[in-house]
Amino acid sequence: MVKYVAGLLFDEDCKKVALVLKNHGPSAIVGKWNAIGGKRIDSTNLGLGFESGPAAMYREFLEETGVEVRDWSLFLRLQGDQWEVEFYHAFDTAKQSQVRTMESEQIMVWPIDDEHPVWVPNLNWIIPMALGHTEDHVWVYDVMEKETMARVPEYRGH
Questions:
Q1: pTM of the model
Q2: Strand ranges for 1-158 from DSSP E
């Protein structure tokens, strides 16, 4: 299984978000703006398991933007048979103003004022979900492919 992290750094007024212009990866995202992130390090062959989600989010965001953000909160997990993506959010206007392109993919801060056709389409519902999750920090929304969910036994009570 391949595990990914994706982070949305918002300003404290929730009016802007930092995104990355994807130039590699699945064809559905290449050429579109997406959450900033990448693969979690897989050390299962060494008996160590996967890098933790928060550690991967910290590392990936620092590598891609040059900015250290430590207070990521998990709010969404998408899962298929061979992949998993954990989405995190953070709110820091000062740090958002410092993001810059550090690697081959461009980083930019976007206004959150409307749906954007140049964004990965899923961001049109993921961003509102992240912004609606600012108060509870309790629920993590799990979304799985149908095939995965079909293997979950039906609950029949006690």
A1: 0.83
A2: 2-10, 16-21, 33-34, 36-39, 73-79, 83-91, 107-111, 141-144
